């Protein structure tokens, strides 16, 4: 197939799952046209992300005259079609905090995307996230572009389902993807019951070959690693508070960056745990794998999630997981078998789980890691999941 991936900002450090999915589709013989609205505003430290950027067309990098020309071409081709798409854009804009003018910009972007897809012989367009990328993909189809689908990750989409017109996008899509059964259940809330059948589950995946020889469990004091954007929903402030309550000798490495970094650093100093925490900023995939090999477990204290890729990566690296009992995480991590699950926002419970991990014998931790690895390899092989996605694109 010739497939277009329609994205908002791509690539970004937190979007390795999209890169893996595209790469898997290409390994299976499909041609993927990458079309993003804009470039990332943060530096790309991973060479793989920079390579993806080089392969990506950026719609908003085009001159305004080019986008206007695409709209004019759509008007000449089928005025009624453009009028219908404009009405849909206006309706979504009225429901959205972004407003009608922004959605008319999406309409121009969609006209350009439809024009490029026709020129490239694209037969299916797939968007990631139910935000503006899905709106552009939907409007593109209405302007004569290819049929479209989109993947909903959460939690952002579930925070504002009406403002994002999720029900409309599901109804107009060829099919809609949730990354977990929990995600599908949330889409059921906003889609008409008649549209439930078009909502599929396709997991994000890991590349097993990159985790072919997990490092043995390290000796010494317990080290935990947390990976993710330093933002409210990821719960790092709760993690620092929990660390201050632990009794065991535990060190935490925080990988990532974001708007809460300053507050996190201040809290570390206030609670007297600055010497027990390392902040790395964004690092590349090789460094993440190295940090996982040096850690005894991953800790994921999130308040809201979809199904975190870093949980899959830690399990593939044969490391237990300490996570919150939210969203799709319990579908993968079973409490007491692959790690520890605690209520989101419960600092005392999180501290208790961290202490439990630290006091667990290395042999037991290794056994938990091995079982976790077997589970994620069985459920989240990116080639298997990408093949499933293609079957849906082909009508299977």
UniProtKB/TrEMBL annotation:
<dbReference type="Pfam" id="PF13692">
    <property type="entry name" value="Glyco_trans_1_4"/>
</dbReference>
<keyword id="KW-0808">Transferase</keyword>
<keyword id="KW-0328">Glycosyltransferase</keyword>
<protein>
    <submittedName>
        <fullName>Glycosyltransferase involved in cell wall biosynthesis</fullName>
    </submittedName>
</protein>
<dbReference type="GO" id="GO:0016757">
    <property type="term" value="F:glycosyltransferase activity"/>
</dbReference>
